[in-house]
Structures
1.
Amino acid sequence: MIPQPTAQQALPDETFTLQPDATIGIADSSAQPIADRFAAQLRRSTGFELPVQEGTGTITLSTDGAESLGAEGYELRADASGVTVTAATTEGLFRGVTTLRQLLPAKAEANSEQEGPWEIAGTTISDFPRYGYRGVMLDVSRHFFTLDQVKHFIDLVSLYKINRLHLHLSDDQGWRIQVDSWPRLTEYGGSLQVGGGTGGYYTKTEYAELVQYAAEHYITVVPEIDTPGHTNAALASYPELNKGDQAPELYTETEVGFSSFAIDKDVTYEFLDDVFREVAEQTPGELLHLGGDEAHSTPHSEYLAFVPQAAELVVKHGKRVMGWHEIADGSLPAGTVVQYWGTEDPKAQVLAQKAVEQGATLVLSPANRAYLDMKYHEETPLGLQWAGLVSVEQSYSWNPATLVPNVPASAIDGVEAPLWTETLDDLEKVEFMTFPRLPGIAELGWSQESALDWTTYRDRLAEQGPRWEVLGVNFYRSPEIDWR
Ligand code: ACM
């Protein structure tokens, strides 16, 4: 199982077998959507009717208990008489059902009827996460991914108890979210992508559907509008945002660090006020990410003046600021979350420490560990390698509590695995870079420190292979793993 639960015990003489007359019981109606979704999947693969009913069932889902395990915690028991999943919240129940899916045979994930038996070895589990932030980032700017593609990505990452989806919605190559007050951002700024092909963007209706779909998987969307660099798409759409009022051409290559908003113009902040307002209106989550990375074309003194002004606009619209670690060089509003993307670079570590000294918390995305777009090895046909080659072991074998020196464990909110898409233009390529590394980052975010061990993780990861085969996931069959 991945992530490894906090506590699990075998019930050696017990086996649960799902029979054709099985039922799914819900203790109260709040569990109905979770039960319906779970039942729908099991009906497809087992061919059983699996009615969802009030009260107890063969499998009972309850939100009345396990209070001590927190909002995402749950208890699960499978024995010869049935299965119960109990949590204090629907979120915890969802995480518990995610575990139940992994306890069932891999073919339970199939979309056509399969042969049983549908057995679970008797077990009791008591589980809760180490960290509250367990994220994945998808760069939809370098290459655009449609609503349906992002939904499929959500389906897959939610299997590993990921609870944040950071969407990198703007960059030099494309602006991907509708902003009514600045319509050329999408009409023009979203029209292309890396390589010069047709880009795209999410209308407000589509974006709302995406946020809702993520919420149904207990995933909160963290939207990112990258500033003041990585802004060519916006600069190309509106000349007034440029120093000198001259709009550049749209950009479809993959250099970084050449674009910057005009820091000393009022219109820049009027623009950000509108953009952050409209994005915040579509964001039920607390965080709005303002980027702040690689502003190599913004003079540093101007950068230091810009960040607090941009941050204030995020706060004005009711959101907490999130940003890449460079933003910690200036003063940050209370409640800021700083995303560390350094390697072992002391300059990046100093910025992370500076963030924590100001009271910010950290989400850890070390590029040489957690970046899903780094090549696995020299010959990997996709991806980049500026942060090094990132094998499955390299991505798993680190400790979030000690990654950045001189930072207290209490300052770590969690981990995130970013997937940049300069070289990735379809979902198969996204899957190839995401699997099998994402489950390891998800485990670093969920499982207790004492459970983290590469040797046993390798074996558990091997067991995921048959699931991905059933699900049609184009995963990289790394020779580090003895795939089944
Ligand atoms: C980054 O990789 N530029 C955050």
2.
Amino acid sequence: MTTARTTEHLPFGEKRDPRFFGRDILSVSQFDRSDLDTIFAVAHEMRGMVERIGTFDLLKGKVLTNLFYEPSTRTSSSFVAAIERLGGSVIQINNVTYSSVSKGESLPDTIKTLESYSDAIVIRHPEKGSAAEAAAAAAKPVINAGDGPGEHPTQALLDAFTILEEMGTLDGLTVTMLGDLKYGRTVHSLAKLLTLFDVKINYVSPEILKMPAELVAEVGAAGITQLETPDLDAVLPNTDILYVTRIQKERFENVDEYDQVKDSYVITAETMTRAKEQMAVLHPLPRVGEIAREVDDDPRAAYFRQMEYGMYVRMALLALVLGRA
Ligand code: ASP
């Protein structure tokens, strides 16, 4: 990470907000409410620009590295779309078996190599703490795109932006998180981020996939009312945001345990009849059966719109971190 440089004699088009310029994005805990107001305002602006003109040259000349040690469809391609819509370009490393990593290169060495070619690095890695390790090795900004079961801060930002665009506000809402709350890094980041708002949070999961106790304690210490239950029906009628997650097979050490819980919750059209008329269903995707496809046509199903909002949020983050927003 670099520290913010002087704002004098900036090249044409550069606008450096010291809260973002040159900084890493590793955890949602680094943001306060005014940071979020800025990110969401810029993301909203990006939405308007994409709708009006599609691609524009805000980040012309900037190069992003997308370093993915774990599979990704949306996060990886939305960062590609984000930098390209802003006129920049991307070094895409998706399959590390084709790189020196498979020869045993350390993460810091790989990062030092890639930062010599690019202006920022997006990293997804199976180990918790890996993004912080990469950031410690890098002079350029590092963006955490998922560190194992740790955090996924850009996903939480896009989740919150989705709620804002869909509902007009986050304050006063009841958010129900459903599914794999133990390994789901998206719910870990989102629960932390929601402490900046006036919300209530319900956690609905099988017993073995409960939200980690230390996270519940952290969110509770911030003054958020939380409820843990295995029973979706107990909380569904009062839910404004239903945040569904996939049971993450790849994180289980014991496949029998996965088989026991994999079909614990399935949202169907019938489930939706018991929910509020004004509600939004979010899902970080991919889904593997926890939301029936019949729900897709329900206007409350926001998970495909959520992907699009994700591109606007990632455009905003890149522009802010690279000093052009
Ligand atoms: N796409 C999300 C993530 O990378 C959720 C998931 O994989 O289930 O964490």
3.
Amino acid sequence: MAGLSSSGAGVERPFVSVVIPVFNEAENLRPLFDRLTKVLDELGTSWEIVFTDDGSKDGSVALLLELQRLRPSQIHVIEFSRNFGQHMAVLAALRQSRGEVVITIDADMQDPPEEIPKLVDAIRKGHDVAGGYRVDRQDTRFRRTASRIVNALRSRATSLNMRDQGCMLRAYRREIVDLILQSNESITFVPALAALYASNPVDVAVQHAPRVGGRSKYNLYRLVRLNFDLVTGFSAAPLQIFSLVGLIVSALSGALVLLLAIRRLVVGPEVEGVFTLIGILFFFQGICITGIGIMGEYVARIYQEVRRRPPYVIKKIHEPRPE
Ligand code: UDP
Ligand code: MG
């Protein structure tokens, strides 16, 4: 692979960057750091870690700065002014990272850092994106079922090639990271952007562990929002499906009107079936409101994009210092 150097740690461009969003993960940071640095040291190449603190309130920043003191030349800490969401935290860290291979991973160790070498290997073999998929996923049954459904829906609605969209343990070549950064969207989903630009992606099986410390940052509402953002950001299928449904309903109801007109002439006035009629009306009313909602999702998205507000605000970047 041309241009992949792996010499020496420190100020020059590292071979591997690990990018980690952190939101109230105080309990997890030290064990994460220990496991991660061990894995990275064993890789035998130069590396750096870029943490983004996404507005934590539990002292995570102070802990991150402590960790930075342990490996001053290899740790970056980006401090957000407040919470801007996981994908914004990842984007900011990607922008700061300089590695030829960039790994994203969560701070909670649900995706074990020990799986990183597998992903680096896949990139070394020439893949430009290596996406983890979780075997034996350790989340609640509800999360697993929901995940299966949204993965299936998303793969039909979009043409994105991602086996497990919810798995953030992924590796990207620098060219892909540069394309992700050029995308400049204010609401986004990083693995989906990568899937869009990948020319030679591969899925890699990774282990999964239960969350040890802290709590999941996603409640049902945030999960639903995330998936709406993903589908509206990467596909117009919901709108197109609605146009189709509209056409079909119009055709059917046109036929019904015709039939009723004929009956009116042949049988005379009929009043039976009023409640059935109300039922049918409510049903179509529901479809209409959903359609307006879906249009609203796209309009809101356009509105958010055209305002061009900065998608996140960095309070401070604590850069690495040469040892
Ligand atoms: N996270 C973040 N900002 C947020 C929510 C989450 O930076 O607003 C980070 C969080 O600290 C973790 C990762 O994103 O490193 C994934 O979050 P979590 O583990 O809660 O998600 P889950 O595994 O439940 O999907
Ligand atoms: Mg997690």
